[in-house]
Amino acid sequence: MDLSDVIDRNAAFAPDKVAIRFADAALTYAGLAQRIALAARALKSQLGVGLGDRVAILAANHPDYLVLLYACARLGALLVPLNWRLAVPEQVYILRDASVKVLVVEESLAAVCVPLAEALPEAHGVGLDFKPAGGTSLAELLAGASGDGRHARVDTSSPLLIVYTSGTTGRPKGAVLRQDALAANAAMSQHMHDMTADDHVLTVLPMFHVGGMNIQTTPALQLGATVTLLARFSPDATLDAIERDRPTLTVLVPATIQALLEHPRWEKA
After folding, report:
1. N or C, which terminus of the chain has less Cβ within 10 Å?
2. Which positions of the chain have pLDDT values less than 70?
């Protein structure tokens, strides 16, 4: 068993329930499970991703961020989320330190591709929403998927995430989280927030932080709740989502709370 099996379970119980809302689209649990399986097959058959390999992502919040997380869980690979606020040399340092095999990058952040190719010529570039020079687009990668998208020696004790520290007093260091750490975190989050499958989580924090990814987002998906995902925080987009989607839970930090409190729409929100 690996962490992606809980998504398959939710898809079996409630295939038509919305798992993720993003922009103007909705992805059901059946659709999410299918895309995870397809991504795992594509990474394995097209790029040779397997046990212990690192798949980095440099992008704003996007449903495929989570697809790649669970696809890595199936393969025994590790997802390396990259902070898009860092300067390119800082991002390249992390990519080299993690020895990434694949970098999935959003077009607006593609400045890292050329220095990455120089630093790690063996790494594969995959464009989330475009086709990078010398690489492939995610759509093309998925279209070529074949074979099996599992690894026989993977279970919940396998490492899944490498999340880099801020490096306040030195170089950032990669903290490794196993699949069972995310499962335990989900159980604690569900208990702390009284979260059930009937909840609707609004995620506005960046998923390159564990706060954005693991305080409520992955716990909600593992439980079978619905997540509304914003690419980036803005007061207007957050208030729009609250009015439109009526979420029951969200995680904010002092800076985002202050931005909402000072917004002209707050009094009637």
Report:
1. N
2. none
The phi and psi torsions of 193 (rounded to 5 degrees) equal -100, 10
Of 197, 195, 210, nearest to 165 by C-alpha is 210
The end-to-end CA distance of the chain, in Å, is 43
Q: Among 93, 70, 71, which Cα is nearest to 82's?
A: 93
Helix axes 29-47, 5-13, angle to 10 degrees: 150
Structure confidence at residue 166 (pLDDT): 86
d(CA 227, CA 203): 7
Count the Cβ atoms, other than its own, within 10 Å of residue 257.
10
Q: How far apart are CA 250 and CA 200, in angstroms?
A: 9
Structure confidence at residue 152 (pLDDT): 86
Does the pTM surpass 0.90? The reply is yes
Residue 131's pLDDT is what? 96
